[in-house]
Amino acid sequence: MAAGLARLLLLLGLSAGGPVHLFRLSGKCFSLVESTYKYEFCPFHNVTQHEQTFRWNAYSGILGIWHEWEIANNTFTGMWMRDGDACRSRSRQSKVELACGKSNRLAHVSEPSTCVYALTFETPLVCHPHALLVYPTLPEALQRQWDQVEQDLADELITPQGHEKLLRTLFEDAGYLKTPEENEPTQLEGGPDSLGFETLENCRKAHKELSKEIKRLKGLLTQHGIPYTRPTETSNLEHLGHETPRAKSPEQLRGDPGLRGSL
Fold it and tell me: Do 38 and 53 form a contact (C-beta atoms < 8 A)?
């Protein structure tokens, strides 16, 4: 039944898996005001932050979108929200820790490192000792695979490292974790690695490859009788879309609309 409900939730655009009893939190949001910020956690959706000030440019944005579970000791320990708003050269992300509580509430928010947020969400839905166990939530086929992995470990057919790797693959197949490729952070434009030249040698190598490609393309154009011309040279400022600054009139001061002479 758990697997069937998980498939239904997937069709509805919700999480692909996890503790079924937690899906009743989907569609709800829980807020907490810390200092001058209001944080809002919407399970299986996102985490947002809203600055509570009267400034014209008060911050309001996304701290992460539902991405995957965090699993430790074969237990769901938290929810990762990734790919939030841009923060320097990366995206904001949040980890939501699930804790036992008398009611559903967002209990605590902090920022342990720049643009990485830690939230604590309390709910009576996780108070039972077995509420966050991974094994019972799996389809029968994956449970059998897990049984075999445990047997292979007991028979010393695999190492503890191999055991851990096989379990991670199993959790990925269940949709609880993303693959390493899916978890690669997105490098935002303008970040420190956006140019791709960490050393002078890399720059020279790239220049050589580009020169070869240009030569090949010129050969193709010549072969097919297509004329080509060298682009006209422009200054660096023109490449960047800037105009050469002109000298200001002595009468036009900073903040002056320049209408003094027409009065």
Answer: no
